[in-house]
Design brief:
This protein is of the alpha/beta class. The chain contains ten helices and eleven strands. It has helices spanning about 55-75, 95, 110-120, 150-155, 180-190, 205-210, 215-225, 240-250, 255-265, 270-280; strands at about 15-20, 25-40, 45-50, 50-55, 80-90, 100-105, 130, 135, 140-145, 165, 200. A hairpin with a 6-residue loop joins strand 1 and strand 2.
Length: about 280
Amino acid sequence: MTQPTAQRPVPGRVKALVSFGADDAPQVIPMVLQARWFVGDEGNQITVVGPVTFEEAGMAHIEDTILPIVREMCRLLGIPGGSFLLCVANPGAASQLDVGVKIEGFSADIAVFLALLSAATAIPVPPTIACTGHVASLDGTVHMVRHLAEKIAAAARAPDISALFYPSITEDPSLETFADRELDRVRCALLDSDDLLHAIAVGNVHELVRKAFRSAAVLRGGLLQGFYSSDQQNETDPSPFSELTAYLRRGGGQPFEDELGRCLMAGDRGAVSGLLDLYAD
């Protein structure tokens, strides 16, 4: 597997793979989503800016399904209410598809979800990760999207992508609507890209968060945003996301003392100082 160019992780920034054009010749283009979170301003819950936007049904789905999940997780983490600004861009998309690109369908759903949650929690997603998948319900199930085989192939060719999160093709009940031939193409694409790409199947956002957020980043985000705690919390809350947010509260399985010890053993004085400053605050 080739090593992608080093990039700096930024909270709220996630790559998405979306497709345009006819089913027999789709064009897959990587998009960069950058979300920002503004505490206290709940007037416009989410505003999309930039050269790439979502068509009406897609935007309504973000507001009615994805945003409520993120808000519920923020509630459980004790993060105060606020609003999001979401910019979707690709420097080459305007020249390839003309100015004023609109994303149709739901391929960018899990990337939008990760970008919003990352912005609110200050937990960055590794910059060489890309996503495609449909958040199909308020409990966070992830379903199949169109042109998945082409998206896997495109991710494998991209020099700045090392891993792709995609909908599981074994757990998704919506697969009954997809022809066996399409699923066979997906399996072939996975085999063909095996040496070039780490393809990670997810059936819901619970799996996605645990696999996309690194433990050390979860710990630092929790310290920065004030939701880190070694105590057991939210375990009895009836929310379907109580267990997941409890995992985030506990530093993603990385206790503060363990991460501090790791940084000390590595001789990383800057990381040690940064952790102690965050803990003291």
